[in-house]
Amino acid sequence: MAKLVPVPSGSMVPDRDINKKPVLECVDLGISFGGLRAVEDFNIIIGPTEISGLIGPNGAGKTTVFNLLTKVYQPTQGTILLNGKDTHGMNTMQVNRAGIARTFQNIRLFDNLSVEDNVKVAMDAHMKYHMWSGIFRLPGYWREEKAAHERALDLLSLFSMEKLANIQAGALPYGAQRRLEIVRALATNPSLLLLDEPAAGMNPSETAELMENIRKVRDTLQIAVLLIEHDMSLVMNICEGICVLNFGKIIAKGTPEDIQSNPAVIEAYLGRKEGGEGA
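^ that's the sequence the OP posted. Answer follows.
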C-alpha cells in the first residue's frame, strides 16, 4: 500500500500520484434540503490511482455525497472538479461520460439479459456506428459489435467471469451479481469508480475475493476507486486514504492507522462514554 503524502491544498494523496492531476477534487461541497444541511463543507482530493474510503454511521451523508458527485442531486454549494474540469451544470449522463461510474447498495442488473449484454448495454455511449448502420447491419455495425464483445470479455475476465458471458444475469449467485454490477460500471470507461457498499451481503471469502478484485481493477485499468463500506476490515485493508463523515460533515481524514486511533471517529461509531474521561 502506498504512503500518503501532503499536497499544497492540505489534503494527502498516495506518493505515486503526487505529481499527477487529481481525479477528483471537492471544494466546500454541500447540499441543503429545505432547512436541513445534509452535507456541508465536504473537501476531498483523490489521486488518479488511489483507493479511498468514505465511512461513517448510518445517516451520515455518505450516499448523498455519491449522489452529488454523480449529479443525482445538484449541489447547493461548492465545486466538484473531475480531472480538473468543473462539473457544474452537468447532468448524470454527462458526468458519467466525463469519467465517473458507480454501483448501488441495491443491485440494479437487467435480470433477463445475459451477463455479456448487461456489460455491453453500458458501452452504448461509446459505440460509433450510426442508426442506419445498426438497422441494416452494415459493416460498421459488425465492427463495433465485435469490439464490444471483446471488450466485455476482457472486463469480465478481471473477475474471472468470462465463462459466464451467456448466462442470464438473474440466474447468477448473489456474489457474482455484485461483481457483474462492478464490471458494468467499468464498461463506461471511468477514471473514478464509486462503489456503494460493494461487500453488502457477502460472506468472508467473497469479501476477501472482492478486495483482491478491487486492487486488480485499480492496477490493471489505472483508475481511482472511492468506496462506501461498513465492513471495517475491508476498508482498513484496502483503502489508502479514508474520509469519515458524521451528520454531513467530515470529522476526520487520514490513513487507516490515523482513523483507527482518532477519538472523534471512535465516538461517532461507539458513542460517548458515560462518566470518566470524555463524558
